[in-house]
Amino acid sequence: xxxxxxxxxxxxxxxxxxxxxxxxxxxxxxxxxxxxxxxxxxxxxxxxxxxxxxxxxxxxxxxxxxxxxxxxxxxxxxxxxxxxxxxxxxxxxxxxxxxxxxxxxxxxxxxxxxxxxxxxxxxxxxxxxxxxxxxxxxxxxxxxxxxxxxxxxxxxxxxxxxxxxxxxxxxxxxxxxxxxxxxxxxxxxxxxxxxxxxxxxxxxxxxxxxxxxxxxxxxxxxxxxxxxxxxxxxxxxxxxxxxxxxxxxxxxxxxxxxxxxxxxxxxxxxxxxxxxxxxxxxxxxxxxxxxxxxxxxxxxxxxxxxxxxxxxxxxxxxxxxxxxxxxxxxxxxxxxxxxxxxxxxxxxxxxxxxxxxxxxxxxxxxxxxxxxxxxxxxxxxxxxxxxxxxxxxxxxxxxxxxxxxxxxxxxxxxxxxxxxxxxxxxxxxxxxxxxxxxxxxxxxxxxxxxxxxxxxxxxxxxxxxxxxxxxxxxxxxxxxxxxxxxxxxxxxxxxxxxxxxxxxxxxxxxxxxxxxxxxxxxxxxxxxxxxxxxxxxxxxxxxxxxxxxxxxxxxxxxxxxxxxxxxxxxxxxxxxxxxxxxxxxxxxxxxxxxxxxxxxxxxxxxxxxxxxxxxxxxxxxxxxxxxxxxxxxxxxxxxxxxxxxx
Length: 646
Ligand code: GAL
Known about the structure:
Layout: E1 2-6, H1 14-27, E2 31-34, H2 39-42, H3 52-63, E3 67-71, H4 79-84, H5 111-128, E4 134-138, H6 151-165, H7 168-175, H8 204-232, E5 238-239, E6 241-242, H9 251-256, E7 262-265, H10 275-292, E8 296-301, H11 320-330, E9 333-338, H12 364-378, E10 391-395, H13 397-405, H14 414-426, E11 432-436, E12 446-449, H15 457-468, E13 472-476, H16 498-501, E14 503-520, E15 525-537, E16 541-546, E17 555-562, E18 565-570, E19 572-574, H17 576-590, E20 602-608, E21 613-619, E22 625-629, E23 632-636, E24 641-645
Parallel strand pairs: 1-2, 1-9, 2-3, 3-4, 4-5, 6-7, 7-8, 8-9, 10-11, 10-12, 12-13, 13-18
Antiparallel strand pairs: 14-15, 14-16, 15-19, 16-17, 17-18, 20-21, 21-24, 22-23
Helix pairs in contact: 5-8, 8-13, 10-14, 11-12, 14-17
This protein binds beta-D-galactopyranose (GAL).
The site of beta-D-galactopyranose has 8 residues, from loops.
């Protein structure tokens, strides 16, 4: 396992580079990420390139056995470029250029920008092609879908629509533009969603396409850079550091042509009362591993209290620096790069803390980080071991966009049931993959398909086939609601999935902040919230009914035999325990072994390899946990990770 740090030589006096590199080497750091925002130093004037300082920094690291991942600096074009060619600066929703000096101030469709971006990337690739210390490349930084409203992007959008729909008539039909007299009579009338309107006011079909195209633009930009780097360095290892943000790109398309996934991981330092939040990190990590179904890197990892665009958060509690990095390993990371070596003394991020504070005196966090480096070294033999899972959860970028475009009811969000289902199985000691909805399913025995909102016929077919051939599917409310254009399907819910689930909703009740009681046949009761599909069973067996509201007695949870398999349907958003009950039933029915003695938020995963396999057990809470496992009494301190060979 490799530990690295993000480092910005351009932020520090040269004298510090050597002392920093020496301390890094002594601490056990094997990798630094450099360069991703340094365009103004790499090309200080148009066509004048200066790699001297970067060569020197790389040399200092490589002499001390530290490898480099090099960022392409395309996130931040220099001011001279923006001044010379204002078209490189993206246009905001208000139709005016975005401010320069924050970052991300470039339009990924602007031909002038693309020319300059290609040139700097090519220059870097050419310059470093034979440098053995440069072991990987990061494209840009935290790419987002291209929400630029400039004339070039607007024209691109029209072209995209022309090639998708062919005629205005087909486009008007797909968008239902007759509503509010929105029919286009010429392509030029198609504008981007200017203005600060709440998304929900805008046509959902139009908005979903806009999101799709915005994501494709960014993916094309990223692929352009990857191809260029490969032209000079055919075996380069290329990634981009992804994250969860407002305008996300489609994760699966983003990494399709890249070599590995890397992710920026900032777990909370403020342990919230709501334990669900703490749990999110494990889910995100499994989602990252699921993008390519391969091990991945953390390119930025929590190192100190976070603050910049928001007030500062708590400093990481003892155990967090080490525990959260080991948690990433437990979920399939092989390399964890910490953001950042030292807290910046300049610029907007001076309160986003690194491993070392402004004082440059290594303190408590650094000591814990040094311990982590030591432990990572001991785990070297586990590098390349993999998590194998019987359980998959499907994720779809279309659903992510569509739920943002039209929030369903108070408090409801797409990731929630993904998390609840994940917890149900992971809490029983199973590895869980979160994979793209188009992923091949035959390796799995259980597939959770929560909130399959925007319908893709090929995904529907695959879920039917999976159940038919003996798999267990779990579907939930808000499935089969929309067609692929984001218009409503005119059939009783869950529409395209009704035969699979063997039930239908006669009505639904978006209860938002209210709650509802659910009662299982054995008398167990649970609370439901946010949403109630008022179900009637057709061929399904009713497992639980609503026990309150005017639909008391209607089905809330059902299971249907389908072919050689089964399909569960959960009509509400339940509490954790409800999903655990269903998971336990499925695991017992299918004979998959599980562990039911793990306390809440004690996470267990298993990495297997040809030579060696290991179990990771992580106390993701701020109190000690005692429990029994395989007949042994185990005590874990707050955020302690236990790793044992099996
Ligand atoms: C990430 C970003 C870094 C740095 C960090 C802390 O989102 O990639 O460059 O800004 O957050 O703020």
